[in-house]
């Protein structure tokens, strides 16, 4: 079963993991050190991120390193962009209303 990417990023621990590995690839043990949960719990979060293709793994010797999958993050950004544009338009309209109100006040 493939999970929805938004289900994955809905969890604050998974978002924190993404932030950590965005800076550098990390092993599960290194990631677990940043949380007050067990390594097993962190591994479950990592598995969800892997299933959603937000994270990829690379084996180096006996260690597994997790990397951020930037292409998948761009998909999320692209989806969010439509809402950014909507809110920017609304703020621009609000700015215009406030400008007009201020202009009327100054004319009195």
UniProtKB/TrEMBL annotation:
Top-level division of the source organism's lineage:
Bacteria
> What Pfam families does this protein's entry cite?
HTH_20
InterPro entries referenced in this protein's UniProt entry, alphabetically? ArsR-like_HTH (IPR011991), HTH_ArsR_DNA-bd_dom (IPR001845), WH-like_DNA-bd_sf (IPR036388), WH_DNA-bd_sf (IPR036390)
Per UniProt, residues of the HTH arsR-type domain are 1-88
Give the protein name, as stated in the record: ArsR/SmtB family transcription factor
Q: Which organism is it from?
A: Adhaeribacter terreus
